Amino acid sequence: MTLLQFDLLILLVSVIAGLFGSILGLGGGIIVIPALTLLFNIDIRYAIGASVVSVIATSSSAAATYVRERMTNLRVAMVLEVATTSGALTGAYLAGHLSVRWLYIIFGVMMGYSSLMMFRKRHETATVIGKSAPWSDYLRLHSSYFDRATGQEVSYRVVSTRIGLGLMYIAGVVSGLLGIGSGALKVPAMDLAMRLPIKVSTATSNFMIGVTAAASAGVYFMRGDIDPYIAAPVATGVLIGAALGPHLMGHLPSTTLRKIFVSVLLIISVQMLLKGIRG
Amino acid sequence: MTSPKSIKEKTLMDEERVRHVELLISQLLRLGITASLALIAVGTFMTFLHHPDYLSSSDALLRLTRPGAAFPHTWHDVTVGLYALSGQSIVIIGLLLLIATPVMRVAVSILGFVYQGDRVYTLITTLVLCLLLLSFALGKVE
Questions:
Q1: Domain spans of chain B?
Q2: Which residues of chain B lie closer than 8 angstroms to A210, CB-CB?
Q3: End-to-end CA distance of chain A
Q4: What ipTM did this prediction achieve?
Q5: C-alpha count within 13 angstroms, C-beta hemisphere, residue A56
Q6: Is B122's pLDDT higher than 80?
Q7: Count of CB atoms within 10 A of residue A120's CB?
Q8: CA A215, chain centre distance (Å)
Q9: pLDDT, chain A, mean
């Protein structure tokens, strides 16, 4: 294979990664890492370096549209970013002191459980929760978005901000420790605890993952893990895919989006469990 | 100033300002990704221009993507490369711009909340930026 052929193939894979990543709020890593290591035999270090770039590319490219269309809840994102960034700092500090194997098992189980809980909610469409929410009231987190699939403005209330902050802190620690996109923990936290509509959860997660990834990307670059020959076609493809994703997501019914997300989350949790068990 | 009409006007003005900030953030992100895409594309083009053998040889690909491959990854490498118009140095500048975009987004959000007169969120976003810069600083030491 020549470099040109390699570039074009990676570009194609990355467009798909950006498309899925931007719709699900997970970043492109879940497709980019296995594709680079399994299909192209790229060293895992460079695959992770390219994946971090792909997460940032997905986040920024899709957010440009999600923010303009008010799908992202900017206030929720800002508040939760305090927890994810401090979590990521803790994670980087803890690295080397904790058994990564057990972390994979714990989070594999946690994600498996989240996917089941999210699956149980599949028939639920946007419901306004009556529970009192003093923190969300004070921080004015309640909002609304326009759902293109139903052609309606959907109002929603945000609850359990403190639990959400706690879960986001954990999500930050995990991404700092394991270097994986913490979108897989962010979306369930917003969906199950804070009761945001699924579309707002994925769009807001998508917005947030760029910041977490940017914090670690600097380190990966200095360490020499970001090979431009690999990262360039990945970034280009993902930017294109993630620019298209939000237009598709707007028209997707919430229940369909939820089903796709649950399936992907289940796959990730099985992968993590296997990693933990094999050691 | 406290008549119902002026309160209504004030809320409208607030909403308008929130909208301004949303559009500003959206445009900043778009600008960041467009500029980095352009740099990556130009850099890749220059690489093929300087090394026509990359179009035909499959040894080149293995050499450039195997562990321990040589590519610029320090400021020194990049600046030296830029003087020589090296394609990969231009690509790197594009990638670094891409990495910096979310950080600039947080910084611009602070200005946005100041403009909205929202003290609580100005504080929250400033805290996020500080934590982010702290993680950059600590990361370098490692």
A1: 31-141
A2: 101-102, 105
A3: 33
A4: 0.89
A5: 32
A6: yes
A7: 11
A8: 15
A9: 88
